[in-house]
Structure formats: structure tokens, C-alpha cells
Design a protein that fits this description.
about 325 residues, alpha/beta, UDP-N-acetylmuramoyl-L-alanine:D-glutamate ligase, ten-stranded mixed beta sheet, about 25% strand
């Protein structure tokens, strides 16, 4: 059954030097559209869900390109407003071998970062929705971002719509202003039914470290969060071992009040794109959750979609239902 999901966040333009060059070497830049919540929206729409995107973009050609790309992915953009001003940008140097990828943000003063809550029709975007997906990047943009994030969640509460909150901690953004990320994120996570985040995110929320290692530490952290946040029902996370920038080992986990499931670790080699893989994981978890799947189904669907996203250039995961169903950890031969 198709479900209606509303995603809220900043739609971004990404600029990347070709051929894995450094910015210092670049004569040209490749442009793609992305942003964490937009990536989740595109992934869920590609799987057949009805997805709306709420936000604000610039009233210029960059904004038009961004809206067109999201609409082409199958996302309903009626609640994506336009305003004079600049688009949020980020620059990415793609890593290779021992050199990891690096991101430089240029988002200060964007129309989204400066937006007032009244400029976005949250009530319309949430009408009849089964879920609001949002996260920790909007409040990281500054005091106006905190107000905007709280307004979105207040609208969801008023509409009786459950919230999925992806921690998505961005240290560079929080460090750019006099912020208290732990306190801000605690208030927002208190509204959430689903948290996408690992033991490090929970340490920030609760102001404490967790002992042990591996799945034991992750369960300890999850139990602590489920105790502190009574509204929270589900915590989904991945653990990633980096062999090189092009070769990772990944495991997925979902913790609920009644139990947990952790997948086997899989090898993801020959990586084409790292950006957006966490958003693909979130979309996979939500796809299984919306279908009434258990913790195993959610973890395995999230892992499959994140593994597949590593093979797709750009921010968005445009994998359809058939390709997801045919996923094999070893890749398999040509599909004919």
C-alpha cells in the first residue's frame, strides 16, 4: 500500500571537482542537487510512495533546477516555496584510496536558513501524511534554523503525524555559531517516534558515554535513549569500517523496545559515491516500517538500499522496487 510521507529540510546544490580532483586543482565543477531530507524523499518516491517536500528555495535558476530535479524523482513539490535570495551550496572533494572525501559548506544566509516558519505551509504539507521525516541539519544552521525545526515538529504534533528524526550531526555547521547542539537536539528528539542515529548521537543527546564495544554498546545506548525519550519507539543505525575511501564494511541495526536486530556485515567495494548513503539507509528503514515490517525487515531493507546507493553518482538514490528486491550483497551478474 502506498503511504504519504512529508520530508522537510534544505534543498541544496552540490559542486564537485571532476575526476576526484582537489578544489585547488579544479577548473570546472560538476553540479548535482541534494540535501539529506531531499535524498530521503527521492528514495522513497522511487520506491513508489507518495512523498511531499516542504521547504524554501531561491527564486532564480538554481532554485528552478533544484525543484525540477526533485520533481523528476517523483516528489510532490507543491509545498516547496520560492523566495528572493541565494541557494545553499556545498562543495565536495571526492576521496580516493587513503584520502577521504571532504566537504566545504556555503550555506550561511540562504533563503532556507533565513526563512520564517510562516513562509512554509506545514499544515498543508502534513495533511493526510503518515510520517514527517526531518533531522538535525536544519537546527544546525543557526537560531533561525532552530525556530524553523521546532515549527515543523509542532505542526506535525498538531496534525497527529509521527516524526522520524535523523540526527545527521554536522560539526562544521554547529561550530559556526554559539550553539548548544545537545540541548537543541534533545528537545527535538523528544517529539520523535523514530530516531536515525548511532551510539555517538545518543551520547551527544544524553551527555554520557557508553561502555563496551560493538553490538553491546549500541544496545546499551539504545536502551538509554528509549528510557529518556518515552515517545521514541525505534532507533536505526549503521556501523561502518573504512578499509579505504573506496572500500567499506557496513552493518545495520534496528533497536525497538521489544528487541533488536543486527545484520551481518557486508563488503561494499568499488564505491562510486559515499554521499547520500545514510539517507538511503533511512529511506530503506522507513519503507519497511511503513509496510509494517519487523526490526529484521527494517534493518535488512535499510542495509540493502544503502549498499546500492554506493554505486550511484550524486546525492539521490533512485532505486526502484524491483532493483531493491533483487539486491544481492555480492552484486551478481548482469541483469538481462
Amino acid at each position: 500500500m502506498k503511504q504519504t510521507i512529508t520530508c522537510f529540510g534544505e534543498l541544496l546544490i552540490r559542486l564537485t571537482p571532476p575526476e576526484k580532483r582537489l578544489l585547488a586543482q579544479a577548473d570546472t565543477l560538476d553540479m548535482v542537487v541534494g540535501g539529506a531530507e531531499a535524498n530521503v524523499a527521492a528514495a522513497l518516491a522511487s520506491l513508489g510512495h507518495v512523498v511531499r517536500f516542504a521547504g524554501l528555495v531561491s527564486d532564480n535558476d538554481l532554485g528552478t533546477r533544484a525543484v525540477r530535479e526533485l520533481r523528476a524523482a517523483g516528489v510532490d513539490t507543491r509545498f516547496l516555496g520560492r523566495a528572493p535570495g541565494r541557494m545553499g551550496l556545498y562543495f565536495m572533494e571526492q576521496g580516493s584510496g587513503a584520502r577521504r572525501s571532504a566537504i566545504t559548506y556555503d550555506r550561511a544566509g540562504s533563503v532556507f536558513a533565513e526563512a520564517a516558519p510562516a513562509s512554509i505551509d506545514f499544515a498543508g504539507a502534513l495533511a493526510g501524511a503518515q510520517l514527517l521525516h526531518t533531522g538535525g541539519i536544519t537546527p544546525a544552521l543557526g537560531p533561525k534554523g532552530v525556530v524553523l525545526a521546532k515549527a515543523a515538529q509542532a505542526a506535525a504534533r498538531a496534525a497527529g503525524v509521527p516524526i522520524c528524526f535523523d540526527g545527521n550531526y554536522r560539526g562544521q555547521l554547529w561550530a559556526a555559531w554559539d550553539s548548544d547542539p545537545g540541548s537543541v537536539l534533545r528537545d527535538l528528539v523528544a517529539d520523535a517516534t523514530i530516531l536515525i542515529g548511532n551510539h555517538r548521537d545518543i551520547s551527544l543527546l544524553l551527555g554520557k558515554d557508553f561502555s563496551g564495544d560493538g553490538d553491546g554498546r549500541r544496545r546499551e545506548a539504545a536502551e538509554a535513549a528509549l528510557t529518556v525519550f518515552p515517545q521514541l519507539q525505534l532507533i536505526a543505525s549503521t556501523a561502518r569500517h573504512l578499509v579505504t575511501a573506496d572500500h567499506h564494511r557496513i552493518v545495520a541495526r534496528v533497536d525497538a523496545r521489544g528487541g533488536a536486530h543486527q545484520t551481518d556485515e557486508i563488503e561494499v567495494a568499488g564505491i562510486v559515491e559515499r554521499i547520500g548513503t545514510g539517507d538511503a539507509f533511512a529511506a530503506g528503514v522507513l519503507d519497511a516500517w511503513l509496510a509494517g515490517g519487523d526490526v529484521q525487515a527494517m534493518a535488512e531493507t535499510g542495509l540493502a538500499l544503502t549498499a546500492l546507493k554506493h554505486s550511484i553518482p550524486g546525492d539521490m538514490c533512485l532505486i526502484g522496487r524491483a532493483a531493491l528486491g533483487a539486491f544481492s550483497a555480492d552484486g551478481g551478474d548482469v541483469r538481462r
